[in-house]
Amino acid sequence: MSRLTNSGFYKIKFWITPEEWGEILKLFKDREASFVSTNYARTSYDKQQVLQAYEQFYDYYVANEKVADYFPHFVYSIVLTMDQGMSGFFVRNEGISFPYHEQWAVDELPSIMISLPKDIRIQAESGEGTDYTYEDIREYRPSIYKLYEELVSEIKNRTKLLRFSVPEPDGSRVQKPSVRISEKAAEQIRSGWIFDRYELVMDTK
Question: What pTM was computed for the model?
Answer without folding.
Answer: 0.89
